[in-house]
Amino acid sequence: MMSPIASLTLSISDNATPYYLQLREQILAAIREKRVSPEDKLPSSRSLANMLGVSRSVVTQTYDQLVAEGVLVSKPKRGIFIANTSLITMPLESLPEAKSAEPEKTVGYFDSSADHSVFPHKAWAASMRRAWLNPDPKILMGNYRLGFPQLKEQLAKFLYSLRGLECGAEQIIITAGNRDALQLLQHMLKKHVNQWYTENPTYPPINASLTGQLEHLDVQLGGALPPENTSPWAAVITPCRQYPLGISYSSQCREKWLQTLSEKQGFVIEDDYDNEFIFHGRPVTTLFQAAKHRVSAEERVFYVGSFSKTLFRGLRLSYVVVPKAFVKPVLESQKQLGQSASLPMQPALSDFMASGAFYRHLNKMRRHYRMKRDYLESLLNAHLSQWFEWEKPTAGMHILLRLKTPYADDPEISGFLKSYAMTQGLQLSLLEDHYVDPMLATKGIVLGFSNTSENDMECWVNVISQCLGCYFDG
């Protein structure tokens, strides 16, 4: 029997609809539009999960629900098939619909993701065509557990040219986002590590991605210092541009980390989340590269990067650069966990990089984001300088505003600001929400500018200004 995979166009988006419901509706749509027929065999849950870059449980949940509804049928030792029932010939309105909540009011926010409105779709489409004119059979079979080799070669060249990071393609592992990368590394290091640390403050999903009891490293003006714990540990840090504070670790702080690693006291996972976009000055050397010049330290730093910030969020491809001694252990962990990075997109991305389109896009976006940063700062100077202070970022995709004294001393201001903004359709990212204990945190707001339109910037800055004027001035 033929497999309908060639006629199915399935994709998963990071929106409010659960992944399994998105997949369910797309399979039902394929049936309605007669792109599949009764007795057609669907891809296995593992291969479809790999293709979509999602957990296998998403696909199994979708299949189980459609089997229960009589749309699909599971045949032991054979797979999942389109049911041979009258359902296939039912009109559109007769097919079962998933229950959904009432549509929610649209809420906006200062978005620090990639601006997909200026993505080079034609260049990307050309790379997709070239990559799939004569596809690698191993891609179709899902045999590249650690990632498409040509993509890893392109990444090694990219990291050296942009970040000065020296590594071999064999040290690069392609993952399905940073969460997948952290979970893979935690699984691989479980025999070497007793305690995990994250920065305080940090990006909340980092804490959510790690299992077990976490400890936290307070970030001071010069960065976070390494743990004094003598028990084996690992720490996830952002030394080149700390999130959300936007600072770079000082040379003294970095030296303490390197010295500690040289003494074989821990491991570092270096998250280099948006350092492709530097507007002024020279890029900060990665800790991964600096560790190469220290005995023992180079085998204790793992580097994590992502294409979500450089291309588009829905791509769901990230990567880890691991020390040579850990390549085989990572492969073993990947086998145990199951492959989750989408292979079909990787040849297209490799071509996109090899053609030079990726580098042209980065240069364009660097200028684009710099103009957005400057426009947002002009609005801040005009409307919010009475209440906030900030430093103009020389890199990255967000600005951090800190409430000035005495406004920051008001214990109710953060709650009022967040609630008022929500009534106006704006969801604010408070600095306090990035701390372990919000009550002890500095008061402020994290404003993403990279994927926020100028109209929205102006509207939402006015919302914040009106809120604070109402609260403090009556």
TrEMBL record:
Keywords from the UniProt entry: DNA-binding, Pyridoxal phosphate, Transcription, Transcription regulation
Domain named HTH gntR-type: residues: 17-85
Organism superkingdom: Bacteria
Molecular function per GO: DNA binding; DNA-binding transcription factor activity; pyridoxal phosphate binding
UniProt entry tagged with the keyword Lipid biosynthesis: no
A Pfam family recorded for this sequence: Aminotran_1_2
InterPro entries: Aminotransferase_I/II_large, HTH_trans_reg/aminotransferase, PyrdxlP-dep_Trfase, PyrdxlP-dep_Trfase_major, Tscrpt_reg_HTH_GntR, WH-like_DNA-bd_sf, WH_DNA-bd_sf
Aminoacyl-tRNA synthetase as UniProt keyword: no
Family: In the C-terminal section; belongs to the class-I pyridoxal-phosphate-dependent aminotransferase family.
Stated name of the protein: GntR family transcriptional regulator
